[in-house]
Write a structure and sequence with these properties.
The complex is a heterodimer of chains A (about 170) and B (about 450). By secondary structure, chain A is mostly helical. Chain A is globular. In chain A, helix 3 (about 50-75) crosses helix 5 (about 95-110). Chain A has eight helices and no strands. Chain B contains ten helices and 20 strands. Chain B is α+β, with helices and mostly antiparallel strands. In chain B, strand 7 and strand 8 form a beta hairpin. The chains are: A mainly alpha (about 170), B alpha+beta (about 450).
Amino acid sequence: LTDWEAIIRANGPTVWRTLFRVTGSRADADDCFQEVFMEALRLSRRRKIDHWPAWLHRLAVCRAIDQLRRRRRSPLSDELLGDIPSREPDAAQSAQAKDSARQLRAALAALPPRQAQAITLHLLSDWSYEQIAAELQTSVSNVGVLIHRAKAQLRERLEPHHEPTA
Amino acid sequence: MNQPHDTIDSAFANLREMPIPDGPPPELLRQTIAAAQAASRPKKITTWSNLVLHIRKPIAAGFALIVIAVVALMFVRSSPVSYAQVVAKLNQAHLVRFEQVMGDPGSQPFVITWLDSDQGIEFVRLNNQRQIRDCRNGSVHTTTLFPDHKTAYVRWNDLRDWGRSALLDDFKAMAQAPSKDLGPFNLDGHSTEEFEVQRPGPVVGTDSGVSPDGHRLLNVKMENTTLVYHLWADRHTGDLVRVEKNFQIATHSMKTVYRNFVLDPQTAPADLSTDIPPDYKQIISGISTMAPADFQSAVVKSLHDYAASHNGQYPPDASSFPAAVTFKGTQAQFATFAQLTPAQIRSIHVPSSQAGPPAMHNQQLILMYSMSFDPPSPPTKSTSAPSAPPFDISFDTPPSIAMPVSKNVVWAWTFYGGKSATNHTLVLWFKDGDQFCCIWGDLSVKSMGGGIPADYTH
């Protein structure tokens, strides 16, 4: 039997931090936290998990991006994406950094899910293409395609004056 | 000047360096552990006898049993069907008829009759036009009949496993079956992805709702890279009610609705006919990754198909051949041979290191194509269908034949247009192994033990 208490205690903080980092919201991180482990429990009945930390990290990224997408679809999306509550410990951050994070989250929310997952795992979590390919169950070259496309779309959103390449 | 990579990298770096508060809250951690343990614990089953033994008074026990039976009956009656049961019900049907509406909700629906996956044929009707999509054998042959033009437009395409990727089969499979290896067609590194995004992704959620007419519905959501599918089925009967496909890439989005599903409808024999009326002109084009048994049969078939759609004429000259195939969306884009040298043409090989079925290795392409083909007027200009789209075909795409063959084959095109090919006209010669062969205008093939005539060895 899987020792879920040990797994959650060992990986819970990392999972929560990932959720917070991607969503930028304590409330969202809390909301998603239990869902990540319930999803892990459900999926673990169907496949053997060799490396729990990496797998849970990937699930957390997926869930956090899904949360961003949900926010985007909600009528209050702009406000929510742009207004991270001031209770977070980022009071000292510059307005520019906060604005950059807000824009990136909004842009990530607009990406197709697999592209968003791939580029987040690569640029936020420093995962290699091979690691991402293994977790997303696709080829390394396809990961390259996903990240290339994600960058192209992010560039269009984050660089207002950027001209898309042909 | 912009430095695009820096912008994105620095945005992620900024996100990575933002301070993170402590978490999760202890209470949340405790609740999560408790929830996980409860969910992973084997369910305790209370037997009837244990239940009865715990109730001392027989009357109370009898009453309790009646209550339990009633509750159990209510549970069984209201027990919702699962997605797997919806799929099983579809699998049992021999025929499925449904309507497909694309774009504007007010647009005219296609009426599609789908023969079950064992047969794998779709019959599509829009106004008086019919389309037959034969998805057997892993490829798709699409025959579109235009009565107003007495024309049948025939396309074959096996770039993906169409037999398993048709709408209903995708739902039946409930999984992302791998695309075929696109082999030599995977030139831009994007082709597989372009096709893969058309499939419904894995199930990402289910919930329930109530239809306007009061039916309780099961809603299954499936997501892929650029697609979101919503499938609704009756929670009690398992009947498929509606499927919505939302395709979004960048700023472009498109919605397709499948509705009015009828299982095993009454059909007239003519509705399920695959025959092309004998007085119809046939326009044939195709593209294939299937390795033919041999070069000779590939060339003869290609020439035959090409000539069939060009009034018996062969391609006029080598410069009208396409050399490369790339994909943009689901449309094949061709570049002509005129843009490449013969050496480059023959260099379009499948790398031996490329993963994939061994049959796809060691191949080159032979493509026959005409840029000068003059298509008939699009049926959209017909008075009988002034506003309806002509299915999904485009007469703007010239007919073409493409096949991969062994890279060890040496071949050369020797026929140049302007005259009709006869049994004295050498169209193409090739050398497969030690043997020279010539294909003549009547599609006869002759071995040339002494080599190719000097006139043709330029």
